[in-house]
C-alpha cells in the first residue's frame, strides 16, 4: 500500500470478503464476524458438527482441525493441527481447513479412522474426531513417523474414557517399525495360547496410501493475492486488521495504541469481552520482517511471529548443523519448548506473543533472559533499536518496558561459548503433566567459566512463578561470580535461595516453591559438574550421594490384553464373548455420530444461560435485570416467579423436595442458579446473564470438612455400623495404631458438557432431549415444575459424551429450567454449558476425612477397626446418603475384619452438592483401607504384600454384609497378578535401583480390589420389534455413554434370536418406548437392560419356535413372515428383576443384601519419582480382573483401562481448589489436569481371569466399569514405597502420611532431605 490509513480512515473502511476453503469447498463470506472463532463458524455457519465443542480454551483437542496453507517463499504446502475453538476465524483467511468430515465417511473410511475403530480406540467417541485429525495431520506431514512422533502429536488431545492405550496402539501401526496390526500377517498382534488370546483387533486394515489424499486448492497455490493484500474485517465488537508490511503495522499501532497484536490467540482468548466496547485486533502473521529467520555465525535471529513449532524446527536444524558446544543454549531452549503447551498450541503461538504477554508464570521467558537474548524493537515515531531481555524488561504484572506504540519485531539468540552451560527446569501446575500446563515454577540458569578452570566468570539465574513478574536472582548471581564451582559454592547458594529469595505471600505452596528454587539449582549444579568439571578433569566430581538428577529415559510404550477364547463350537456370526467394535464406531470416527449439541437448531429456537450466585451463602436482596433485558436479541429473564408448578426438585436419596429450580430467597453455594436469560444467540445469552445485578446479604459460609466439624454443621443422615466388642478386641491386639487420611474430591470431566433441548408441543406436551443417564427423573422433574402429568413429557437421548456418575441431578435441574422458559415463550429452548460453568455447578466426588484406630497381631492380622469417616456432602444431601452407605459397605475391601465400629458423618457445607461418581464411594473406602494396611505394614515390619495376603478373605461368609460365593477369585486374581508382573524379581530391581540413586527413586505396590455391583433398583425394561424384512429394532431403558451398553445388548439379542447383529438396529432411549426406567449406573447396565432385552427376545423366540419347528430349513425372514401371516405379534416388551429384597441395614449389616454380586481384581504398579521436584511417572502396570465370562473382551478391557486411569487421576493427579468465596478455581484443562497420554503406563498389561463364570450375570458376565478405579490406589502406594526409600536415605523410617491426590508438592515435601529441613 502506498499510504497507511489513519485511525479515522480505518473506521470508515469497507470490510473485505472472507475466503476460506473447507474440505476442498470454497467459502466466501461478505460479513464474517471477527469475534467468532473457527469452531463456531464451521459448526453453526457451515453445519459441520464433527469437530466438537468441549473446553473452549484450546486445551482438550476435541475441536482439532487441520490448517493448510501454501508458503510461497518455501514453495511448499504446510499442514498444522490447530484448536478450532481457540482460532479466530479471520486468522485463517486465504487458507484451507480440513475437518473430520473431509477425512473420510462411514462409506469410505480413511485408514486413520478405520484403524482407530478396529483397535477399539474409542468409547464415548466425543474426543475421537480430534484424535483422528491430530494423527491425520501428522501423516500429511510425515508418512512414516516414529513412534515418539505419534505420541507427541497426540499430546494435545484429552480422552477421559479409554486410558489412551488402544489409541496409541492403533496409530502406532503407521509408525516406523510399528506393529502392522493385522492378525493374519503380524505375530505381535495375535499372540496367545490355544485357549487364551491377546489380540483385540477386529478385522484387517486397508493400507495407507498417501497419494489418495485430497489435493490442496490450486487457487491458493498458484496465486498469493490473499497474502499480499492488507485485509480488514469488522463486527459489532471487534475490528480485525491484517497488515502486510511492517510500516503499516507500526502506523496502525501508533494511531491505535490500544490495539492488540495477535498471532496465536493464546492470551486474547482469555481476555474479558464486554458488550458495547469495540476492540481492534491487528494480526501480525503476514508481516515479512516478523516471519524471517537468519542463521548467523554467532546467533539465530528469529522473527517475532515465528511460532513455537517453527522455532523448534529452526533450533533442530541449527543443532544438527553445528558442533555440540555452541548448541548448549539452543538445546536448553529446545527442550523447554517441547514442554510448552501442545502441538496445537505450538503450531499457532508466536514466540513474540509469549514474550510480550509478560506472564509471571512463563516457562520459556526465564530461559531466554539468562541466555542473553536481544530484542529488536520498532515504532512508527522512533524507528528501530535493540533492547536486552534482562532484569529491567518486565516492569510489573503483565507489563514490559515497551511503550504502547512499540512492536517487538525479532529476537536474537546467541550461541554458547566454549565454557558456557545452560539449562531450564520446570514443574507443572500441581500435577506432573510435562506436556501441557500453566507451570507453577520454572527457571533458566546459565554459567560461563574462565578458560579451562572451574572459576565462574558469568552467572545468570531467573525464576518465574515467584511473584507478579519474572525475577532474576541477580544477588545470587553476583555472589557466585569469581567463585569456584564446588560443594562450598553449592552449600552457600542453597542457603541464600532458602533464606533471601523473595516469594510473594499471595502465592500458594510457598514451602514447595522454596524447595524448587534449591532443587533446580542443585540439578543445574550437578549437570555442570558432570559436563564441565569432571569432563575436563578440572576437579573430581563429588559423590553428592549418587547424584542422578535427571529422570531416567522412559521405556517405549507397550501393552498386552489377554482374555479367554470362545468355545470352538460357537457360531462365527455370534459375537458374545468375542472382541467386537462399538456399534457406532464408524460413525464416531467420522464425526457422523450426533451428540446432543450437534442436533441442528429448529426455526425460532432460543438459548438459555444461567444467572448464577457469586456468593457461597447469602440472602437475595434484589435482582436487577434491566441491563440484560435492554439488549437487542435478549428475549426475557426467567426466574422463580415464572415457575408454574413446584420450584423444588426431589432429592434422589429421600425423594423429598430439596434443591430449588431457581433460588428464590437464599443461595447456599457459589454458582447456584438464581435465574436465566433467554436470547436469540447463545453467546449473547451468556454475556447478558453477566449483566444481571444481584444484591446479597452475606451469611456465614462453610467450605471444608474441618470447618464443618468446627461449626457442627452436618446433614441429618449419619450412619453407624458395629459388630463385636471393640474395647475387648483392642485389649487383645498386639499393636494398636491411630491415624488420619484425607482424600480430596474429583471432577467428572466428561468431554461433552451438559446440554438440554426442550421443545413445546400441542396440548401442553413437552419433549426433552437431555444429556442424562436417568430420563425418568428428568421426566418427573419437568412434569412437577410445569404442573402437568408425566404422560405429557417425553425425554430421550441417543448417546452421551461420557458421564462417569455425572449427568444426573444437574441435568434434571437444567431441563426443568429450560422447560419453564419453553412453556412461557412457546419456543424451543437450548442450554449448553460451558466447561467452566459445568465444572462449577456440577457436584464432584465427595472429599473424605477418615480418622481410624486399628488393632492387629504381631503377624499383621487385623483384629479390630474403629473409624470415623467425614464426607463433604455440599449444600444438599443429593446422592450423599447412598454414597455414604456404599463407602461403609466397601470399606473392608478384600480383608476380613472380625470386629469393627464405623461412623459415617455427612458434613453440610456451602459447596455445590457432591454427587455420584464412578466407583460411588468405593474409591474413597479403598484409599482409606489401603492406607490402614500400609500403616499396619510399617508397624509390624512384614512386607506389604504378605500383610495383604494374610488378611484376605478365605471363606464364603467373611464379608461385612453378604456372602460372596465366588470369593476365592480374589486370591486367583492376586496370584495371577503376582505372576504376570513377576512381582518379586521386579521388587528386587526396584530396590537395586534405589540403592544406586539418591534423587530418583522407584516404588512398587500390588493391591487387591473387591467391588459390589448394583446398589440400584434391580430391574430394567426393553422393547423389541421384528419387521417383515427380518430386521430387528431394539430399544431399552439404558443410556449409552461410552461403556458399550448398546453394543452388548445387540450381542445378547443376536445370540437369543440366532441371527447376525447386522440385522439388529438399536435406537435412542426414550420414555415413550420404555417407561419408568431406572438410571444407568454402577456397571449394572448390561445386567439389567441386557437381561431385559434377553427376556424380550426369548418371548419372541417362543412365538417363532413353532414355525421354526415346522420348517427347520427355512430362513429367518421366512419364519418371521409366516408368523406374521398367522397373526402372531412380532413385538415384545422385556423386563428383568433381581429377585429378593435389597438394601443396607446399618443396624444389622450381616443380614443385608445390598448388591447383586461382586467383582474382583488386583493391580501391580511400578513408578519412578523425582525426589527434587515431586514429579513421577508410571513405568508399568499389570491388572488382572475377574470379568466372569466376558460378553465383549474389547469393551471390557477398554473399560478397565479407562477406569484405572480415572482412579490414577483421583489418587495422584486431580486436585480441586476453591477460593475463600467458594468459587472453584480449577476449571477447564488449563487448571484441572486429568490424565494425559503421557501419563499412560509405559507398559500397560491387562488380563481377564479365565474360567470364572458369574452365575448372577447375563451369560455369566460381570460388570467391570467401576472396579478398576480403585486399582488406581496401587499407584499411590507405589509412590509411598518410593518416598519411603528417599526418606530411608536420610535415616527417616516408619509410617508417614500421604494424602490424595499425591501432587508433586506432597511428594516433594514428603521426601525428607536437607533442602526440606532448611524450610
Strands of the widest sheet, in order across it, are 25-29-23-36-33-34-35-44
**Helix content estimate:** 25-40%
> Taking all residues together, what is the mean pLDDT?
91
Total helices: the number is 38
Global structural class: alpha+beta
Net shape: globular
- Describe the largest sheet: 8 strands, mixed
- Outline the low-pLDDT stretches: 1-8, 189-194, 429-437
Rg result: 31 Å
Number of strands: 48
Q: Could you tell me the strand content as a percent range?
A: 15-25%
Q: Could you give the distance between the termini?
A: 62 Å
Question: How would you summarize what this structure contains?
Answer:
This protein is of the alpha+beta class and 1319 residues long.
